[in-house]
């Protein structure tokens, strides 16, 4: 008769941390919570920075308005990986340099972009996708007119029903202590339509100054063809936005920003609360080869931006803004020329290149 002796494997020295009633109860509770979250069918809500992206970054003119004359010459050398060079020329603009050279490289894991201007300033972006959910984004700006170089590092994790990020702006320990700006944010979907989040900021300009902290709260609700969002800042600021798809090619949005300054109501430091605010209304029309955007705000400004592709490699953009109260205006005209060999355009149309993961921009 054969006797089988079962030998128990030696436990880990730190096994007592997991092999106890408390840790097992926490593990079971977390597993049950994960199962319930999957049954709710929650989607990723985006990020706190993009809580109102449909209005502020797509419909309104904040990212599209410019003045003066501008010409961009682009040359695409490769599609996958993406490699592009661009020369930019500007005249009559206070925001854009007279000349700028920009290079871009990107694939499914790495994105790198650098811009060198005629004023000897250099800006570089570098993003690395560690996993499909985790991305590290960096930005460095060197300007001879500024005393300090700006460095920004952003670590962003995108889960199935939440997004979390930790951002550091110009961090330093060279002065004997920690200085800089550190921002942490978290946005969670509670239902298929409602998501809430918060953002915390810790900043310290120098060691001889006290650290400052602030916490903001935000919420986002997504309807069938509309999205509403709100954000409250601890300094006394309140922002609300509303986006709606009016038709297949028409979108509209409203953005309202309110600020409350205590003790500035007109009776000295002990006065009431001064309330300041601005409301902006915008609309976006998408045609076959053109995109038209227009907005008007409570400060008396009216602006339009028309972007039209007049030919396959040529895009013309017209921008105009009128300030009724200050009796001023701005005009802008831009021409973009993009060139790529025909074989690259054929490669871009292939199904295997269209289904690849985009660069971690």
Automatic annotation (TrEMBL):
<keyword id="KW-0813">Transport</keyword>
<dbReference type="InterPro" id="IPR037930">
    <property type="entry name" value="Tom40"/>
</dbReference>
<dbReference type="InterPro" id="IPR023614">
    <property type="entry name" value="Porin_dom_sf"/>
</dbReference>
<keyword id="KW-0472">Membrane</keyword>
<protein>
    <submittedName>
        <fullName>Translocase of outer mitochondrial membrane</fullName>
    </submittedName>
</protein>
<keyword id="KW-1134">Transmembrane beta strand</keyword>
<keyword id="KW-0812">Transmembrane</keyword>
<keyword id="KW-0496">Mitochondrion</keyword>
<dbReference type="Pfam" id="PF01459">
    <property type="entry name" value="Porin_3"/>
</dbReference>
<dbReference type="InterPro" id="IPR027246">
    <property type="entry name" value="Porin_Euk/Tom40"/>
</dbReference>
<comment type="similarity">
    <text>Belongs to the Tom40 family.</text>
</comment>
<keyword id="KW-0653">Protein transport</keyword>
<keyword id="KW-1000">Mitochondrion outer membrane</keyword>
């Amino acid at each position: 008769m054969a006797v089988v002796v079962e030998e128990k494997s030696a436990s880990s020295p730190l096994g007592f941390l997991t092999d106890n009633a408390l840790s097992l109860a926490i593990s079971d509770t977390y597993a049950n919570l994960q199962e319930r979250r999957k049954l709710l069918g929650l989607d990723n809500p985006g990020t706190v920075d993009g809580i109102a992206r449909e209005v502020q970054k797509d419909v309104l003119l904040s990212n599209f308005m410019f003045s003066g004359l501008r010409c961009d010459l682009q040359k695409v050398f490769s599609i996958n990986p993406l490699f592009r060079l661009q020369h930019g020329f500007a005249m009559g603009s206070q925001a854009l340099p007279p000349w700028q050279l920009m290079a871009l490289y990107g694939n499914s894991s790495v994105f790198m972009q650098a811009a060198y201007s005629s004023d000897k300033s250099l800006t570089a972006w570098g993003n690395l996708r560690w996993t499909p959910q985790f991305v590290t984004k960096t930005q460095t700006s060197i300007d001879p007119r500024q005393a300090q170089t700006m460095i920004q590092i952003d670590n962003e994790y995108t889960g199935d029903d939440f997004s979390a990020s930790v951002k550091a702006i110009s961090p330093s320990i060279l002065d004997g202590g920690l200085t800089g700006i550190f921002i942490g944010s978290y946005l969670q979907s509670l239902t298929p339509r409602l998501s809430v989040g918060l953002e915390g900021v810790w900043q310290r300009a120098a060691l001889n100054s006290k650290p400052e902290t602030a916490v903001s709260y935000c919420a986002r609700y997504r309807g069938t063809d509309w999205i509403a969002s709100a954000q409250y800042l601890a300094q006394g600021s309140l922002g609300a936005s509303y986006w709606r798809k009016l038709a297949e090619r028409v979108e509209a949005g409203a953005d309202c920003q309110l600020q409350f300054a205590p003790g500035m109501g007109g009776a000295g430091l002990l006065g009431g609360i001064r309330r300041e605010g601005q409301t902006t209304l915008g609309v976006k029309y998408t045609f076959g080869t053109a995109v038209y955007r227009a907005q008007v705000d409570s400060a008396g400004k009216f602006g339009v931006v028309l972007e039209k592709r007049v030919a396959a490699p040529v895009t013309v953009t017209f921008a105009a803004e009128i300030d009724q109260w200050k009796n001023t205006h701005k005009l802008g005209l831009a021409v973009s020329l993009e060139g790529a060999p025909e074989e690259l355009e054929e490669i871009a149309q292939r199904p295997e290149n269209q289904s690849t993961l985009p660069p971690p921009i």
